[in-house]
Specification:
extended, Chitinase A, domain 3, 14 helices, 45% helix, single chain, 443 residues, five-stranded antiparallel β-sheet, 3 domains, Alpha-Beta Plaits, alpha+beta, Trigger factor, domain 2
Length: 443
């Protein structure tokens, strides 16, 4: 194989000459790989000679698969040699010429990653809130720990009020006709949770146990069900029971029953320590994010549409995977939120563009500062993994997939980048503004 490279900022053109021997080897490989599919009179299936198949089906019977094979091999070899070619699109391939000697000339055009002009990425000053935990934060966490062990107690001497738990029957109708999904019995609802249509829960407030009343609401104009959106509805509601959560006291007994500590003060100290460590991790993450965002905001590049579309593809795939864990499909989700994939992509285009620009900026810094994982660093990490797996390094790397290799390479590289940027820039920790409005229960 011979080739020439013609580069511009946005595109690379490759002229690839495939000689007769390479082509014939590709055709033979395709024949051997596919001959089991063919049968002709006079031959057993899978035993038909290549010339007989070409005579029966035409000389181009193996052309497409052979061409894909020979081009893929040539293209991969070129990218290995020409390390500065970074494709961002599928190659556009045309056959320019088939010579009398059996050789073939192929023209390949591929979009490449544009150059990035970096702004300042060292000597920056980044403000972040200092990791701190207040007594209120501890009380807030303690309240929710107590809430997990709370018991529900029936209330019979008053009407429903905000934050009560009610057990109700309801039956909804529009113009006197009941609709699917609008009826339930002994349904548990937390007043103030906003889990029902706006206005529904407010009208339950003031009801008494055993009372039945009509609740009038209007479905939102953007409601997921087409037959209900924007329509007024009446729900006949019967109140069976009013419940409240009765929390255990925050005392030594609670500490002994729910933790390994003897006193509530020891338990609180442990909670404070745990929250502080979580805040410290959060601050470290905030440092990295703020610094990378600032660096990316000053870098300059022209982001090709194909890179944004590829990132949007990834966002859609991630969403699809998360939904699958909940037993939902993407089209069901879009139907529920009264949207579609086109609008979803449009709404996230700015996010995708920002992500692409940040990634391009990071890659440029890694290249400029030579921060890629070295062979020695990779081998050290593989030795560590092999020891944990109780294998030799050779055994471990022999079974390692390309995905595992790339993950390790990227992990080492990103750790080196993070260390480099933190050492070369300054972080100013400012006192956090104490927020006391978490919830009304924590006092």
């Amino acid at each position: 194989m011979q080739y020439t490279v013609d580069k511009s900022e946005k595109e690379v053109k490759l002229s690839i000459k495939i000689d007769k021997q390479e082509w014939e080897e590709a055709v033979e490989h395709t024949y051997q790989h596919n001959k089991h599919k063919y049968s002709l009179p006079g031959f057993r299936k899978g035993k038909v000679p290549k010339k007989a198949l070409e005579a029966a089906y035409g000389s181009s019977v193996f052309f497409e698969d052979s061409f894909n094979d020979v081009f893929s091999k040539a293209y991969s070899e070129i990218l290995i040699k020409e390390k500065d070619i970074e494709p961002i699109s599928r190659p556009d391939v045309t056959i320019e010429d088939v010579a009398e000697d059996g050789s073939m000339t192929v023209l390949c055009k591929v979009l490449v990653k544009p150059p990035v002009e970096l702004g300042a990425y060292t000597g920056l000053k980044i403000e972040v809130e200092k990791a701190a935990v207040t007594d209120h934060d501890v009380d807030h966490e303690l309240y929710h720990l107590r809430e997990k062990t709370a018991r529900k107690v029936a209330v019979t001497d008053r009407e429903v009020k905000d934050e009560d738990i009610v057990i109700i029957d309801f039956s909804g109708s529009i113009d006197g006709v009941k609709f699917d999904g609008g009826t339930a019995e002994k349904y548990e609802l937390v007043i103030g949770s906003h889990s029902f249509i706006e206005g529904f829960e407010d009208q339950i407030i003031g009801m008494k146990t055993g009372e039945t009343k009509d609740v009038n609401v209007k479905f939102p104009d953007d409601y997921g069900a087409e037959n209900l959106k924007g329509k007024p509805a009446v729900f006949e509601v019967k109140l069976h029971e009013i419940l409240v959560k009765e929390l255990p006291e925050a005392d030594d007994k609670f500490a002994k029953d729910t933790s390994s500590f003897e006193t509530i003060e020891e338990y609180k100290a442990s909670i404070k320590d745990r929250l502080l460590k979580a805040r410290e991790r959060s601050v470290e993450s905030e440092k990295e994010n703020k610094l990378l965002e600032k660096i990316a905001s000053t870098s300059k590049t022209e982001i090709p549409e194909v890179m944004i579309e590829n990132q949007l593809d990834q966002i859609v795939q991630d969403m699809e995977m998360r939904l699958s864990y909940q037993g939902l499909k993407l089209d069901q989700y879009f139907k529920y939120i009264n949207s579609d994939e086109k609008k979803f992509r449009e709404d996230r285009k700015a996010e995708a563009e920002k992500t692409v620009k940040m990634r391009m900026t990071i890659e440029e810094i890694i290249k400029r500062e030579n921060l890629g994982a070295t062979e020695e660093e990779l081998n050290a990490k593989f030795s560590e993994y092999a020891e944990k797996a109780k294998k030799s390094v050779d055994e471990y790397t022999k079974d390692m997939s390309e995905q595992q290799y790339n993950y390790t390479y990227n992990d080492i590289t990103m750790n080196k980048l993070t260390t480099f940027l933190k050492e070369k820039n300054e972080f100013l920790e400012i006192e956090s503004k104490e927020k006391e409005e978490h919830c009304s229960h924590c006092k």
